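Researcher: Here's a chain I'd like modeled. Treat it as a single chain, no partners, no ligands.
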Amino acid sequence: MTAPAPSTTPPRREPAQAERLLQRLDWQVIRRLDGLLQGDHRALFYGSGSDFADLREYQAGDDVRYLDWNVTARLDAPYIRQYIDDRELTAWLLLDRSSSMAFGHVDRTKADVLIEFAATIARLLTRDGNRVGGVLYDNAVERIIEPRSGRRQVLRITRDLMQPPAAAGTPTDLTGLFRTGLHAIRRRSLVFVCSDFISEPGWERTLGMLAQRHEVVAMRLSDAREARLVDAGVVVLQDAETGEQLLVDTSDPRFRRRFEAAAQALEAALRSSIQRAGVDLYDVSTDDDLVRVLLRMIAIRKRRGRR
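Model: Modeled as a single isolated chain. Structure tokens:
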């Protein structure tokens, strides 16, 4: 009897890697959050329920989308509609996997933070019976993951994110990601946009349209070296998305100042665009502890009355 020839196809490691990552996040993030919040994550994952509950006067920080204009006009004072929170929440993760997300530390890039954040949010939501879906995007839609609950769904999202994206070789345009969200997300949902927002301009209009239909939270992933250069002498800088290279002298303090000024201008433009879209923006750095990021987000949302 002839022995079967050995397979030349390397074994798929994504399922085992995804399982190990989820186990690590359960210990390092989920359990710590549970200890600090006693398992109450409603301040972070509130829903916009469909059942009308009451009216109250507008307070600073309230979401103006819930203004009742008829009552406001009749009483000559702004009033907010309040709703009963949905028991079951549907959430979507709009995930930017463009080439610029590969930037960061050797052992923790923005793409790594994206995977950790998406897996943590999905795990927190699905263990309470909520459904989570996702859109993976690299200047084109890679795949749409329909919302489901359960740990298998979290594993699927994590496994898909661990597969390397295809390099697009062109500048990212996030408009396509938000347009896909508009078409794919049918019922009102909680939407997390996870991106470094390094993109061609003009996406804020589509993001604003998405925010009119859904509760949108923008998570901006960054690395400190994107905003400040260290004195490393003459180096080659490369555009991660187009491959264009530029020889620069980082020992020149004037060049470093111009670089930082340009980074600050981009930062101001981004925050202005997010504000025009009517979306909350939260920052996550490659140096950040994910538990601290989530606690900071919860504290801000509590102060704004988003429970």
